[in-house]
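Regression check, zinc ion case 577:
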Amino acid sequence: MTKQGVEPDSLSQPFWDAANEKRLVIQNCVDCDRLQHPPSDSCRDCDEGAELEWKQVSGRGTIYNYGVVHDCPVRLLQEDQPFNLAVIMLDDDPGIQMYSHLPGVPVDEVPVGAAVEVIFEPSANGQLVPEWRVIED
Amino acid sequence: MTTPTAPDSMYRNDEGLGIWEHRGKVAAVGVGHGPTSRRWDGRAETCVGAITIDALRKAIDDAGVAPDQIDGLVVVPVTTTGAFWEAGKPLPMDVIQSFNQTDDPLDGIAKLSAEWLLANMPELTNVQFTMYGPGCMSNALNVTAQAVGDGLTHTCLVVKSWHNFEGRYYQGGANAGNAIPGTPAITQLWGGPASYSTALQFAEYCRRYGKTHEMMAPFMENSRRNGLRFPEGYWAQHRPEELIPEDYLASRWIAKPANLFDNDIPIMMSGAYLFSTAERAQDMKQKPVYILNHASSNTRPRSLLPTLDEVEADTARTGRKIYEGAGISADDLSFENMYDGFSLFHQFHLEGLGYRGIKFGEALDFYQTDISIEGPNPVSPSGGNVGSGRSRVWMHTDCIQQLQGRAGARQVTGVKPEVGVSGGPMPLGGNYTVWSASPD
Ligand SMILES: [Zn+2]
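Current build output:
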């Protein structure tokens, strides 16, 4: 399924630039050394002014939870309904979540708890977007 | 006059604040509702501003207060259900010209300012205090209770209204485009509908505690039953249909495990109350309902969506705040009217409260017992958004009416109505009010 294109803005530019290089980076607070996602202009735990950086993570995670979307508000995705929409927890910090359509996993047959690794898929305007696939063992 | 948004200092966000300093000294007296409809039909007399004026005038009349005695007005300025006036769409000039308009032509049509209301309610000659409570009636009620307690106003109206336009909501704007900006893309590219987050929390709940979506059916049936006894509500006014388990369980999925009925129906509506000091309330037309406490949560999830652990920690914290400030315990609740839109999180609120002693993971079993208004354990006697459409208001109206003994066909009969609690919206992030038939 093809997602909407992405027009990086100043806050998200490093995330999307890294994705185009097939690297997954997550915002990190230099002061408290804590990842945060989605990114923000300030650290949610420190006073304003804490320095934020982008930190490359391993690209490994587990499937934490999922639902099956039958009625999607995004027009471009509607032809692919119903589809899986899972939440991945990163191995680097299991409090940090990312979404995934879990390409290749049959609808509503999502193995919760399974290990996944990041892949990168082109969106409608060519911007690569992080996605996740189940690691077969 | 420019109306300010309520400052953080008006909310009771923290544990350990002790008994609310104005406990029992603020009262709700009058209730008013405008008519409901599914969508705006484009007429001046049905626009969100018009139904709001209608609700406010009914609340004033219900309380039996002369309009010139009212010195405060708290408004929720946002009225959208998710429907927005599309950029470039011609303005409805005939509607705009029917009112005393502010600088914003969509005021009274797609939003609501205190200034617009005062300009169109000339009988409110003495309003000195105006304030915005953002988001929900639940928020505005906290602001109103605190404002009256603090002496910023002695007789105060509070109102929340909703507009809904033609077309499917949330489907326009960025969702219709082929590209979106990079920051919202991080959360929106995957296309989860509004109920997706709640659906996931519910899925995690079912996995952890061995429960099923089918177990929601008695709650849904009970909520619609109560809603059909709510003459101010959408289903009672327009579609007096029961919701039997077979129909509930057969309805289409939106974001499985959330189905169509787990998503409340967007409507046009307006609900208003008249608050006053406990002293002044004695002379008004209806029995005062005293505010024992208000409490808030502004907790945010660590990452994209709240986990079940985060939900349970916060609803429990909210329960403790509610009871602490009111000086009561769960045993004192006659009934509960916590929020239900989406239906799949009502059990989180219930368990956080420990209503009737239930613990985490037990609410769906509790739903299989007698939760009716006739029984000893009424659950959502208002019927909530499930029973009357999207408003986040019914739960509050019901608390007031139950404690005044004028909930009509919805009146609880299995318990003596003495103390109720209402509020929401989400398990993380909400505002709550404790109501009582007596000030102490
Ligand atoms: Zn920090």
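Comparison notes: Chain B has a mean pLDDT of 96. Chain B has two domains: 8-168+266-281, 193-264+291-440. No diff flagged against the previous build.
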